[in-house]
TrEMBL record, chains A, B:
Record text on subunit structure and interactions: Homodimer.
Organism whose genome encodes this protein: Flavimobilis rhizosphaerae
Gene assigned in the entry: rex
Role noted for this protein: Modulates transcription in response to changes in cellular NADH/NAD(+) redox state.
Cited PANTHER family: REDOX-SENSING TRANSCRIPTIONAL REPRESSOR REX, REDOX-SENSING TRANSCRIPTIONAL REPRESSOR REX 1
Protein name: Redox-sensing transcriptional repressor Rex
Amino acid sequence: MSERSLPPPTLERLPVYVRVLDDLARHGETTASSSRVAELAGVAPAQVRKDLSRLGTYGTRGVGYDVADLAAHVRRALRLSDAHRVIVVGAGHLGQAVARYGGLRARGFEVVALTDVDPAVVGRSVDGVLVRHEDDLAEVVASTGATLAVLAVPPGAAQGTLDALAAAGVVSVLSFVPGRLTVPDGMAVRVVDVAAELQILSFYASSP
Amino acid sequence: MSERSLPPPTLERLPVYVRVLDDLARHGETTASSSRVAELAGVAPAQVRKDLSRLGTYGTRGVGYDVADLAAHVRRALRLSDAHRVIVVGAGHLGQAVARYGGLRARGFEVVALTDVDPAVVGRSVDGVLVRHEDDLAEVVASTGATLAVLAVPPGAAQGTLDALAAAGVVSVLSFVPGRLTVPDGMAVRVVDVAAELQILSFYASSP
């Protein structure tokens, strides 16, 4: 199976493996069994072996996987070898939280610009990153080389902004906006819906 | 199958169905086929029928589902009949973004308190909600009746705060903190890891 056609559940576990392998390396461990990776990742060992074999990687019997090799391999599968440039659209509390989020750079992402429509915010700097006007989106994307965007605008503005991002050449978007969006052709969108997450948790929070 | 043991993938689709049914009701539609619900939810029709049959609901052949009845039924399955009280731990940009997020109340959640450890923030009000000191967590949970919490603290503080929430009687937590947490017995934790979401998207953003 080519990496281009990794099944989404496998794809969604790869960042977990990267984190686990980086943790192991930090603790000086150079090899790890699939069971060890599985335990730290909270996944069944057979699933780990299956996921990694899809990437063309196999452990050595009795030894396991080489931690550094495997981490590099999973990173390549996720195309994390180069830092990805991220633009954050919407510089309210959420957009600023994403831009200031310390863990991004260590995990392969650089926030290269924020945009907003509020004149009180445009021109300011958030953690060293300039807030540009959203009208200049196409120019900002072109000049920064951003390929990923985080969508943190009000719901009413989301579809128009998504379309503008597609027109500007952004191909992947992480949206924090609830509700339905029509995804432009050729674009990948993942949605984090805080209320939906809480609704799922409320199932566990209540006695039936 | 009892609702207490709904499979997680079914459970995760229920908030989507609630949103779709509310949308249909707002547009004056009183009945809907499983195909229509499926289309709006982005799920296969057979999956919709299977999910809803797990809740003990079945459409009428040739008519479909009663939209209002079905919405009420799915809400009950999610135990959304009463407003759930939510405490937001960490009143930085992310915590404030969650507290100000307009969509929560409409979807059954009320943010009743924020907490923080920063004296510059404690005592302030965010969108009408007081920021209390995190040392008073147990008292805040007891006095507000919060059962859900949103964790928006720095990574180094996350485990201690999670344990304190468990000790205070909070049973479900939505965490925005990356990295591994040991989940206290009896607690349900869902993690939104922004960097992991971006890593998954980077797979789509790069040419192989």
